Amino acid sequence: IIARTQHDEL
Amino acid sequence: MNIFRLTGDLSHLAAIIILLLKIWKTRSCAGISGKSQILFALVFTTRYLDLFSSFISLYNTVMKVIYIMCAYATVYLIYGKFKATYDGNHDTFRVEFLLIPVVLLAVLINHAFAPMEILWTFSIYLESVAILPQLFMISKTGEAETITTHYLFFLGLYRTLYLFNWIWRFYFEGFFDLIAVVAGLVQTILYCDFFYLYITKVLKGKKLSLPA
After folding, report:
1. Which residue of B has its CA nearest to A3?
2. Which regions span the lipid bilayer (chain B) (predicted)?
3. What is the ipTM of this complex?
């Protein structure tokens, strides 16, 4: 599962 | 959002507020590494540039603004208002030994070779080692004020909780970010000996003093 580059964490 | 991430963010916020209040109330930044605080301000600056480009939630935006404001306020208090109490002789960690490898790593290992993504990756790698000047300073002075140990405890706890957040998100959302997880593990491991001292000494009412 490749992480997307939309980072929703602080 | 899950309970680990929410308590992690609140623990992080608590750490930032504890430090700011400690310096403001005691009007002193004795025992605090200004270098670590500059690195944290850099971490937030490079990670939260997306404040202007993408809106995720009100919570996300508000917390980012608070973190950035507190980080710069802390740096200002250390190097500006209470500079006289800054213990530069013990805050001698060579941060270039952190910045150069982190920049190289961010350029080599990232999710996408794009400016915003490399900056985000740089901030993730930098955050994992940003506390080293502070831990190094405590090892040099051989002790830390109790309030400073509480600051470090909540700061270390926040990324430990994030590790559980990532387990939760992997299991329930199929979300997995190897870069964040590996850096988060390194960051948490760096706190292990501090956690041991904090639990065996500070929580028993003793002062945190390293064997000189």
Report:
1. B177
2. 65-82, 94-113, 119-139, 151-172, 178-199
3. 0.90
Decide if B207 is inside a domain. Answer: no
Report CB contact under 8 Å: A3, B111: yes
Q: Which of A4, A5, A10 to mutate to test the interface with B (most CBs of B within 10 A)?
A: A10
Q: Is the dihedral of CA B99, B210, B33, B88 positive or negative?
A: negative
Domains contained in chain B, number: 1
Q: B7 is in which domain, residue-wise?
A: 3-202
Report the run of H or E that residue B144 belongs to, with start and end: strand B143-144
User: What Å distances lie between residue B197 and B112, B163, B177, B182, B209, CA to CA?
Assistant: 40, 21, 31, 24, 9
- Residue B188 within a domain: yes
Query: Does B210 reside within a domain?
Result: no
Q: Digits of tens for pLDDT over chain B (212 positions)? A: 999 999 999 999 999 999 999 999 999 999 999 999 999 999 999 999 999 999 999 999 999 999 999 999 999 999 999 999 999 999 999 999 999 999 999 999 999 999 999 999 999 999 999 999 999 999 999 999 999 999 999 999 999 999 999 999 999 999 999 999 999 999 999 999 999 999 999 999 999 988 75
